[in-house]
Amino acid sequence: MSTRSEALADALDRMGLGSDAALVLHFPLRYEDETRITPVALARAGQPVQVEVEVTQSEVKFRPRRQLVVTAADDSGTVTLRFFNFYPSQQKQLAPGKRVRLFGDINPGFFGAEMLHPRVRTVGEDTALPDRLTPVYPATAGLSQASLRRAIDDALERTDLADSLPEALRRHYALVPFGAAVQALHRPRPGESLRDLDERLAPAWRRIKFDELLAQQLSLKRAHAARRNRDAPVLPQPADTDGSLIDRFLQQLPFALTGAQARAWAEIAADLSQPYPMQRLLQGDVGSGKTVVAALACLRAVEAGYQAAFMAPTEILAEQHFRKLADWLAPLGIQVAWLSGSLKVREKRAMKEAIASGAAPIAVGTHALIEDAVDFARLGVAVVDEQHRFGVRQRLALRAKAGDVSPHQLMMSATPIPRTLAMSFYADLDVSVIDELPPGRTPVLTKLIAAARREQVIERVRHACEGGAQAYWVCPLIEESETLQLQTALDTYEQLVIACPELKVGLVHGRMKPDEKAAVMADFVANRTQLLVATTVIEVGVDVPNASLMVIEHAERFGLSQLHQLRGRVGRGSRESACVLLYEGPLSQTARERLRVIHAYTDGFMIAAEDLKLRGPGEFIGSRQSGQPLLRFADLVIDEALVELAREAADTLLRDHVEAADRHLARWLAGREELLKA
Ligand code: ADP
Ligand code: MG
Description:
Layout: H1 3-14, H2 20-24, E1 30-32, E2 48-61, E3 67-73, E4 78-83, H3 88-93, E5 99-105, E6 107-109, E7 112-116, E8 119-122, E9 134-136, H4 145-158, H5 167-172, H6 178-186, H7 194-198, H8 203-226, H9 245-252, H10 259-272, E10 279-284, H11 290-303, E11 307-311, H12 315-329, E12 336-339, H13 345-357, E13 362-365, E14 379-384, H14 392-400, E15 408-413, H15 419-424, E16 430-434, E17 444-450, H16 454-466, E18 470-474, H17 482-499, E19 505-508, H18 514-525, E20 531-534, E21 547-552, H19 560-567, E22 577-583, H20 589-600, H21 604-615, H22 618-621, H23 640-656, H24 658-669, H25 673-677
Parallel strand pairs: 4-7, 10-15, 10-16, 11-13, 11-14, 12-13, 14-15, 17-22, 18-20, 18-21, 19-20, 21-22
Antiparallel strand pairs: 1-9, 2-3, 2-5, 3-4, 5-8, 6-7
Helix pairs in contact: 6-8, 8-23, 8-24, 10-11, 20-21, 23-24
The structure holds adenosine-5'-diphosphate (ADP) and magnesium ion.
């Protein structure tokens, strides 16, 4: 093998294009129209065109920098070409008298029409024009379009493009045959609409997107089914529930479960009594009361002689869960262990021993809980709060904790997942939804106020706090610099201390030690401080019912889900609540849109749907994928209807055409399954 083809093979490998199957599914990003020649004089500025010209002059100039400047003309006009990087071979190709076709943008320059680095093709008097649009592929350094095209063409010759779908199904969904779709995208037929291809509207694209979504559905549904083959501890409902641990817990709880909580718990309890691991997502808007439902799942494990792990993504949140659970469970005589990265070595060792011996029935903590050195004696239930904040790796590690038997997993999220996402990326999870807030909540009034009126806002907050309210003051997010963000928090704190001499003001930020943070939060919970200056560390989960006011500075810098999470910290008590969004102009289009949405909606699902439109799915599934996007062609916003169809088709295939499902998966997911299961 020559070194050149080895280099090519390497480059292809690096792009995951080592196989014919992969090459066939490597579709163009866009297309160029080289089927037509435009007279130089008629070329429109800023639009890619092809011209055919004869070189009249060619020289290398050194001012202002080294460049090859070529003058060329057709019957209609003259064009100047500039190359800042060029090889001697290019100089030869562009010697006076040569006839070339150029592809690129023509722009008006100082000396008339100019093309910068056009693509050059040497032609004779009557070289035929291609009759197909030219595909442009995603490529990488060391991989030219020409060699990629050749590799794909070769792969197309060798590969069986038989349809993976049964004919009847293909017709039912009005899909073009797979082979035809593939050919149409790689080698568009003459006269194919450039626009439909570029914008991925062509029927061939619809087929490819459908196939991609179908592969995702099949894979997730298979993963879902495969779970039944793994063992999990059976945690049955006791025959006599009266006086059971759970019964006693519910008796001494200061409130009754809402209908939605009871429903979610019933679904979870049913899962826990099965011999295979639960993998359930518990969704509920901020403040809907997910924690108590998770506590019930933990207790079911304890009742059956197993352990439960309760993980949260931040120290503050984990600590809060710990306090709440310890508080709830102390009367039942159940010890809750606390494990965080910041414990002293000796304390940590003691905790780990208690967990390993089984002496600690319930352990709460951050990701420290799934560090390798922590071994559970009999882990039955693992709760993961704010699951989208954990990485794939951490969740897999947690699953691995249990050894031969997998623990039941309960994942919780207050970031509502829009329907299309839930249907696609989370199709392997069972979902319970708490769609009802506990009684007595007051709707939060949201106000947008220009930062110029900050003084007035301080005055109002001060007044409200003097009247017995408590308030959060959230400092601006400064993404570029953590130091600057810290400084802003310190400055704000000092300003507010001076502006509100009658109030006790607290400060909490990400750089504080965990026990310092805990002390500040404890003061706020106990109403020893009335005004809490905070960075976004309070974004998730913090629960202080008496706090009824929130001011967010530079609200325009925050994302929608962040604003929603922050705002969810208030409106938890009986006091009328308000959230003031201070903003500073000029606002970008998206910032304006975000503020409009957060002002208009309080329902997390509505906000999430808007957010999906604004940002695309990446943010929602960030932790589910590791680098490589799982969907390359389909777009969950644009192709929502196709997701539905693919889901339905997946069920049909798995029921009636198992070999077809296998064929389809083999084609689409070679080497990618693991990613999808995480
Ligand atoms: P989230 O779903 O955001 O995690 P939490 O579990 O923190 O919500 O619950 C929010 C608050 O509501 C907590 O103070 C919790 O004790 C309280 N709560 C939960 N369920 C109920 C209920 N059924 N009735 C009254 N208060 C409840
Ligand atoms: Mg919570």
